[in-house]
Amino acid sequence: MKKTTLLSLDGGGIRGIITCIILRYIEEQLQIHDKPSAKLGDYFDLVAGSSTGALIASIILCPNEQRKAKYSIQKGLELYAEKGGDIFQVSFWERLVNPFGLLNEKISQEALEKNLQDFFGKLELKELIKPCLITSYDIEKRRAKLFNSWKANVNTDNFYVKDICRATSAAPTYFTPVQIKSMYGQIFSLIDGGMFANNPALCAYAEARKIPFAEVLKNHQKANNPTVNDMIIISIGTGIESKSYSFRKMEKAGKIGWVTPIIDILMSANAETVDYQLGQMFQTLGQRNQKNYYRINPSLKNASPAMDNVRRSNIENLIQAGLSYIDDNRETLNQIVQKLIRNKI
């Protein structure tokens, strides 16, 4: 049997550039060591993403006419580098009258929605080439809303990919909440899945446990309903958040003073908790399988931790943070490449 390969991508706005840089290295090595036309989407059995990670996941899983991966990850990198400023930019006037998004949402959703429409068009969730897991949160029903392309094929839970990406990107104080409609007319009121799963790797594991991969992928070298012993999980973050908050300052911060810190702390803390939980799960396995969980989360180096800093200098710093991680961890990344090649069907 071959291992079930899971890729999980954190949220983080423009910091998704770091994710793309690391994935580009992995894809380039697959092209060198396996085949020149290799694309990431053909090597992973399930791809999960929150917020910006969901956008990257959707690009990876876009189908071509042969139901193989259409895009190399370079396409994702180009989208951020070329369109990031358009999507995340806040006008001078808006900064003046609406500092920190306290009066209304910080960024206009129009540019984001236009770019999603231009890129994904009428692509449906069920058309993605592999099972995916994309996170969001329903503010009216008060529960997580998880989108899965496999479930979209077997029941009525199908949506346009552009709508799902808009929903999972609706980070409070950055973008407004959104209402999206399933192909069967059901309406959901959603915000960013990063509110509860900025690192969706544990959600990906739980979802993979329920999927009959041998049937879905039409190949019996993969296990149905795989256990942790049957999995390789690669979880990629958008940079380690190192900003500290002074006790003296926060002691009397009040509700408004806590708005930005609380979102920042919630997102980074839940990502760290998931890493701890998965690390502990894999530590219970035999020596070889213990090494099948990878958490990749580079130092931001000189890059800003802000999710919406689209200055050219910051984009270059994000790229450099990704490249620096590759230089320092080439052996680990090459190990991942070899495991992906061995377990591809």
Automatic annotation (TrEMBL):
<protein>
    <recommendedName>
        <fullName>PNPLA domain-containing protein</fullName>
    </recommendedName>
</protein>
<keyword id="KW-0442">Lipid degradation</keyword>
<feature type="active site" description="Nucleophile">
    <location>
        <position position="51"/>
    </location>
</feature>
<dbReference type="GO" id="GO:0016042">
    <property type="term" value="P:lipid catabolic process"/>
</dbReference>
<feature type="domain" description="PNPLA">
    <location>
        <begin position="7"/>
        <end position="205"/>
    </location>
</feature>
<feature type="short sequence motif" description="DGA/G">
    <location>
        <begin position="192"/>
        <end position="194"/>
    </location>
</feature>
<feature type="short sequence motif" description="GXSXG">
    <location>
        <begin position="49"/>
        <end position="53"/>
    </location>
</feature>
<dbReference type="Pfam" id="PF01734">
    <property type="entry name" value="Patatin"/>
</dbReference>
<keyword id="KW-0443">Lipid metabolism</keyword>
<keyword id="KW-0378">Hydrolase</keyword>
<comment type="similarity">
    <text>Belongs to the patatin family.</text>
</comment>
<feature type="active site" description="Proton acceptor">
    <location>
        <position position="192"/>
    </location>
</feature>
<dbReference type="InterPro" id="IPR016035">
    <property type="entry name" value="Acyl_Trfase/lysoPLipase"/>
</dbReference>
<dbReference type="InterPro" id="IPR002641">
    <property type="entry name" value="PNPLA_dom"/>
</dbReference>
<feature type="short sequence motif" description="GXGXXG">
    <location>
        <begin position="11"/>
        <end position="16"/>
    </location>
</feature>
<dbReference type="GO" id="GO:0004620">
    <property type="term" value="F:phospholipase activity"/>
</dbReference>
<dbReference type="GO" id="GO:0047372">
    <property type="term" value="F:monoacylglycerol lipase activity"/>
</dbReference>
